[in-house]
Amino acid sequence: KEGVSDSSAEGVPRDPQSSSKSGEVHTGVRVLEALSASGLRSIRYALEVPQIQSIVCNDLSSDAYQAIKRNVALNGVQDKVTPTCREASMLMYEHRDPLTRFDVVDIDPYGTPAQFLDSVVQSVTDGGLICVTCTDMSVLCGVNPEACLYKYGSTSVRADFCHEMALRIVLSSLDSHANRYHRYIIPLLSVSVDYYIRLFLRVYTSPAEVKKSITKRSMLYCCVGCGSFHLQPLGVCVESEEPKRIKLSTGKGPPVDRLCDQCGSAFRLYGPIWTEPIHDFDFVKSLLGQVSSSPDQLKMSERIRGFLTVISEELPDAPLFHTLDHLCSTVHCTCPKLAAFRSALLDQGYRVSISHTRPRAVKTDAPAHVIWDIIRCWVHILHIAYTYNHCWKHLAL
């Protein structure tokens, strides 16, 4: 009912397999929007998403709580949306019991969600969906790496790939929080848009799978001179004599010398970051198919379709990327065409793609020395062209 008080238990979503005192089985999706502000997102969920059983629309502000109640009444969704005025973390902690967990938990704070990550991974059902928004991009993109460490447990870097690294830092933090409760995450979609990042992931429970989390995170060595980067996994899987048994070992390193083999500069250490895929590509293709089949349902369907198309073409197993602008500015030369640079990598037998986080990104599985060899060849070509043109001008004079 509308206007549930803080201590009321009415309107709290139940587990799909649980039953009420009358014997009625509760089915449908139970949603918590923990930081709702005006409640418009919850109202849209209620009006536009099928199979919604109930939505708890929460905000700590009393003014926001009153606005939520008015908006719910104006849109006639009192039967699905329950406004509450609670502290978000405490509300989620109260739903740690499997019988009262939510199927979907959406947190969209002003700034960092760091203080909510521990509670959100406990309040969602097994296989449930978590939606997280981060707007503290200065922290995640290397401006304040010390703040990133105490908020997310990782140090950030100020580089061209900082927005993708921001996604991987938050995923690493979420997985770390989930592991403490024998749970692990599976990212469905991780996007960097405008001034924020948005992540959609599922949470599962499996003590055996949690042990593999050490292989899903890595430290990052980044050269201060040329920007070459190398990843050091925290752990690796090793062969076991017993069948169907996975043996894990801590990683061996470092993967680099004291100085960069390309420019002779020192390395700096960042991370840890998530180095597994940040998207479920079957899920992305399914979304892309739905948007393409019904373009009139969304006003921004063209932008969404283009965005999902770029994401679907990203390499899943090549974390981070280079940019042509940075590579060429390092050696003070003009940039080649992106298509020509990508063709050079493909001719060497490596895979290459772009990234949705940066227009001129070069995401590839080629090692750093191959990339710099191509740049050196490009500089040599430019030098020959300059010498040729200069000689002809001299002869003309």
What features would you highlight for this structure?
three-stranded antiparallel sheet, disordered C terminus, 397 residues, 35% helix, single chain, seven-stranded mixed sheet
Structure summarized in a few sentences:
The protein is α/β, with parallel strands linked by helices and 397 residues long. It has helices at 40-48, 62-75, 88-93, 117-120, 137-140, 145-152, 162-179, 207-210, 281-293, 301-312, 324-330, 338-347, 368-396; strands at 29-33, 52-58, 81-84, 102-107, 124-134, 183-193, 196-205, 217-223, 229-233, 235-238, 247-250, 267-274, 322-323, 352-355, 358-364.
| Structural class by helix and strand composition | alpha/beta
Distance between the termini: 90 Å
Supply the number of helical segments: 13
What profile does the largest beta sheet have?
Answer: 7 strands, mixed
Task: Give the C-alpha Rg.
Answer: 25 Å
Tally of strands = 15
pLDDT < 50 stretches: 1-25, 392-397
Question: How would you sum up this structure, described in words?
Answer:
There is one protein chain. The protein has 397 residues and is an alpha/beta fold. It is 35% helix and 24% strand. The chain is built from 13 helices and 15 strands. The strands form 4 sheets. A 7-stranded mixed β-sheet has the order 3-2-1-4-5-7-6, with helices on both faces. The chain has a 3-stranded antiparallel β-sheet with strand order 9-8-12. α9 packs antiparallel against α10. It starts with 28 loop residues before the first strand and ends with a helix. The N terminus and C terminus are likely disordered.
